[in-house]
Amino acid sequence: MNKIGDSELILNKDGSIFHLHLKPENIADTIILVGDQDRVEMISNYFDNIEFKVQNREFVTHTGTYKGKRISAISTGIGTDNIDIVVNELDALVNIDLDKRVAKEEHTTLNFIRIGTSGALQGDIPVDTPIISETAIGFDGMLNFYQDRDKVGNVDLENKFIKYMDWNPRLPNPYFVDASISLMDKIGEGMRKGITISAPGFYGPQGRVLRLQIQDPNINQKITDFEYNGRKITNYEMESSAIFGLSKLLGHHAVTVCNIIANRIRKEYSKDYKVTVNELIKTILDRLSS
Q1: pLDDT of residue 262
Q2: How far, CA to CA in Å, does 100 sit from each of 5, 87, 91?
Q3: 254: alpha, beta or left, given left = phi > 0 and alpha = psi -120 to 50?
Q4: How far is Cα 74 from Cα 161, in angstroms, rounded to an integer?
């Protein structure tokens, strides 16, 4: 086996991995990912006990148990660039021998559940309701840097979307990756399923106009109207495509549930989204522990 160089797999002086400041024993195999670091404590407040806490920059980790099930809650910060760090480093903790710097022969599978907030792109989706993402669309281009991206993506859907949208070739090629069916079945009962776009920004990349005009002023209407085998694109957020794509490439399971805090079509915004996000957290914890 080829040894991984010091500059490629960076460890801190205490042996923890570079950005997350975690060691293998610090994480569970079920990991809830959130963007907002304050949301980690919202999750761990429900734990029966907390065995470990650490923070470095925007990356906060709490590991504990909920109804006897060991769970880690980790904040990623905003964007797929941060997801590239988080998922690769978590995979390294369980699938690389950090002392020998070689991949382990036996693979460990992690379960990633992203809990987030999102803006709806269909007028019939009420604010303060959850969407579970069957498929994530990456507008970010991150997965295009990795080999085998086509093997984990829906290339037919990608091609039809690019043609329909008259996709600007100056933009990154979008990619389409499905969620884990097993995780969807475990936590998705009663939730609306959807196709979720992960955008590389909050304003222009999601069709918002403040003082800067965007290159395609009709992009959101075209996205709303697009249909594939009876399925519609339901919402925008900023992380799921990388979580789904990297998880598939690395042999992990991933799913996203987002609370809809805005409806972009009806121009509505939640009056107090933290209440329904808290309810969603409790629902997902109960379903993960059952």
Answers
A1: 97
A2: 10, 21, 16
A3: beta
A4: 33
Which pLDDT belongs to residue 14? 97
Residue type, 260: I
Quick check: pTM over 0.90? Answer: yes
Pairing mode of beta strands 253-263, 231-237: unpaired
Q: How far apart, in whole angstroms, are the C-alpha atoms of residue 55 and residue 182? A: 31
Residue spans of the chain under pLDDT 50: none
Cβ neighbours around 98 below 10 Å, total = 16
Sign of torsion, CA 20 25 30 32?
negative
Asked whether 77 and 58 are in contact (CB, 8 A), the reply is yes
CATH of 24-289, one of 1.10.3720.10, 3.30.70.360, 3.40.50.1580, 2.60.200.30: 3.40.50.1580
Residue 50 tokens, joined: 């907390």
CB 206 within 8 A of CB 235: no
State how far the Cα of 155 lies from the Cα of 235, in Å rounded to an integer.
Answer: 20
